[in-house]
Amino acid sequence: MNENKIIKFEQASKVYPGDITALSNLSFSVEKGELVFLAGHSGAGKSTILKLIAGIELASSGTITVNNINLARISQNQRTFIRQHIGLVFQDHKILFDRDVFANVRLALDICSNSSAKEINARVTRALESVGLEHKIHARPEQLSGGEQQRLCIARAIVHQPKILLADEPTANLDRANALKILELFKNFHRAGVTLIISAHDESLLGDYGKRIIRLSNGQFRG
Ligand SMILES: Nc1ncnc2c1ncn2[C@@H]1O[C@H](COP(=O)(O)OP(=O)(O)OP(=O)(O)O)[C@@H](O)[C@H]1O
Ligand SMILES: [Mg+2]
Question: Among all ligands shown, which has an atom nearest to the Cα of 43?
């Protein structure tokens, strides 16, 4: 087994209830520290790939391994281990509007850390600094612009310093200038050695960033 392959799909398919085939027999792998873009039309299967890697959905057939752990045969301990190593920026944000920026980011730490309040403060502050949002630490989410809300989502995804960062359409709904700023942030994480998979419907944004693009159409590779 190649130790450098942090994510591996082997003939993986996903069929949702209702006999909806989202992915058909996909095989590909991602190396440690790689930056990969997922492109494809609405319904192509981008979110499904990210959910499978994060263990939110299980493959219907085939094998998916993350860190050499087969996600189909996973113990509770291994699931916790994997969750601690993955950060996920959801397509639908999942920001909690009943609490401030700090509390939104802290929440992501609660599931996998029993650190002291001081340590939690330091980690949340560091995460917000890395996305340029430290000055909004006590703001309410509704006081943030669209680009700032997306930064909040990224801060929440990286606060536990994951080795793998999955971002589902992080530049959707942003103007070009803000979208490029978000991509610049991801480039920083990439430089720091994080493995990144980012779905994006607008390939024209990627420019130099798009060194490796996996293109999907109807759950299969295209081009
Ligand atoms: N929970 C679900 N139950 C049934 N079908 C689903 C479910 N989630 C996704 N699908 C279907 O699976 C296919 C792939 O969906 P997916 O969300 O992965 O696409 P996507 O490429 O992320 O699209 P978008 O760009 O619109 O976000 C679509 O046909 C979709 O309708
Ligand atoms: Mg999607």
Answer: 1
